[in-house]
Amino acid sequence: MSEAYELEVNGIPYPINAAMGRSLLSVLRTEVGLTGTKEGCDDCECGACMVLIDDQPVNSCSFLAAQAQGRRVTTVEGILDGDNLHPLQRNLLEEGGVQCGFCTPGMIMSAQALLTRNASPTEEEIRIGLSGNLCRCTGYQRILAAVERTAAEA
Amino acid sequence: MSLTIANSIDDVLTALAAGARPIAGGTDLVVGARQGKSPLPDSLVAIDRVAALSEIESVDSQVRIGAGVTHSRLMSDPLIIESYTGLADAAALIGSPSTRNVGTIGGNVMNGSPAMDTGAPLVTLGAVVELRSVGNTRQVALSDLWTGPGRTSANPDELCVYIVIPQAPTSSGSAYVRLEYRRAMEIAVVGAAASVVLAEDGTIASGRVAMTSVAPTIAELVGASEAMTGMTPAEAVTVIASMASDQAVPISDSRGSDRYRRHTIGVMAARALDAATRRATGETIGVPVNRSLGIGAAR
Predict the structure, then answer these.
(1) Is the pLDDT of residue B299 over 70?
(2) What single string gives the DSSP state of each residue in A54-117?
(3) Would you say B86 and B195 are in contact if contact means Cβ atoms under 8 Å apart?
(4) Distance between CA atoms of B281 and B170, rounded to whole angstroms?
(5) What is the distance between the alpha carbons of residues B189 and B179, in angstroms, rounded to a whole number?
(6) How, if at all, do strands B172-179 and A2-9 pair?
(7) How far is residue A79 from each of residues A55, A82, A153, measured CA to CA in Å?
(8) Domains defined for chain A, CATH in brackets
(9) B174 with B197: CB under 8 angstroms?
């Protein structure tokens, strides 16, 4: 049975009508209509579904949407600077940190949370910050380079 | 199904009495449902907004950790790092940053997995859980709480509200180490925790050791304190390693054979005891020990 509630996503309140057992990932993609957040494993392993809840990275596949009521949800769509790419997005493109692109939204959210709490992370801190985000294309080195470059530019 | 968002412990207890199950971060419950292990309960009460469950307080020579305290908080809390370092080691190894942001100590303890990371350090630190239901509060030792893999002696209407740990003695130290194949999103192949109190001459005055993933529940090493007392740390490490391998009753599964686990639990127990005694002397070994001493998966 569906229930009505409200979710704040990227600063915008959305009315939701969904079953209480639905994951935040599923509600974001099919009710809110924001498909930047990806479903990879749907098992809390791969990080493709990473979003921020009150600025902290959370796997949206295993977090109930109804539990996000009253909290600030940020998806990859919410980090654009107007029509401009976010520095992380630009640097991922320029460093070659994007191949198939499926992990990219999750990587960006984890990296953004890391840089918010630690403006100049060491390489080890970046690796820990991105742990839980799997990439099967790049071998990670170029993603690390993009995050390092973003930190250096800020 | 229904979900109620509770704002107080009383709200939670009322919901539990009516048959609801508690959910905090959902890192076990929701993932379990998605994997088809068990569907979500018909009635859930969300406990993650109950402020009283999110506090770490020192009261009457004890520290009371709210069941809703996240692993991210535990691994960075100054009091936990200073006095209950083994618990911080464990919290820092759990899952990934996102798991640690929503996963809680109460969830880790009450899910009762024999592979839980916070369990072994809590045992060595002498922790008890405080369970509450409508009109009743009781404290239960961890050895009485865990009754089997995924099973506890708590009643369905009882909520774990606090983990209570006695004040750490002076000249004491603790540590938790884990055998792992990768550095994140990992489950302990085996793990070991130790806490020790040193005498003035540097020998061991008392200590406890507990083991992860080698028995149906987290298992305390029986006779560890008696065996170690009066020994130098170097002597104790050898004795404890052999006792741990002797007392382990591991299973074989995809993460390791019983023989492999029986051997490596000794290695991990020795490393945990070594790190705990070094910390007891005042040496700083950063949290988690696995990363500071290069134990476990390489980069």
Answers:
(1) no
(2) TTEEEEGGGSBGGGGTTSEEE-GGGG-BTTBPPHHHHHHHHHT--SS-SSHHHHHHHHHHHHHH
(3) yes
(4) 10
(5) 5
(6) unpaired
(7) 12, 9, 17
(8) 2-78 (3.10.20.30), 87-153 (1.10.150.120)
(9) no
Give the tens place of pLDDT for each residue, B214-264.
Answer: 999 999 999 999 999 999 999 999 999 999 999 999 999 999 999 999 999
**ipTM entry:** 0.95
Contact between B98 and A132 using a beta-carbon 8 Å cutoff: yes
CA distance B185 to chain A (A): 6
B98 closest CB neighbour out of A42, A57, A64: A57
B47-58 in b/e form (b: 16+ CB < 10 A) is bbbbebbbebee
- Three-class secondary structure assignment of B236-280: HHHHHHHHHHHHCCCCCECCECHHHHHHHHHHHHHHHHHHHHHHH
Note whether B98 contacts A67, CB cutoff 8 Å.
Answer: no
Burial B20-32 (b: 16+ CB within 10 A, else e): bebbbbbbbbbbb
> How far does CA B148 lie from the centroid of its chain?
15
* Distance of residue A118 Cα from the nearest chain B Cα, in angstroms: 14
Domains of chain B (ranges plus CATH)? Answer: 1-50 (3.30.43), 172-289 (3.30.390.50)
Q: Which residues neighbour B67 within 8 Å (Cβ) at sequence distance 6 or greater?
A: B24, B47, B53, B104, B105, B106, B107, B109, B110, B159, B160, B161, B162, B163
CA-based end-to-end distance of chain B: 43
CA dihedral A112, A118, A120, A124 (to 10 degrees): -90
**Residue B166, by phi and psi: left (phi above 0), alpha (psi -120 to 50) or beta?**
beta
Least Cα separation, residue B109 to chain A (angstroms): 19
**pLDDT, tens only, B252-295:** 999 999 999 999 999 999 999 999 999 999 999 999 999 999 88
Partner residue facing B98 (CB), from A19, A58, A127:
A58
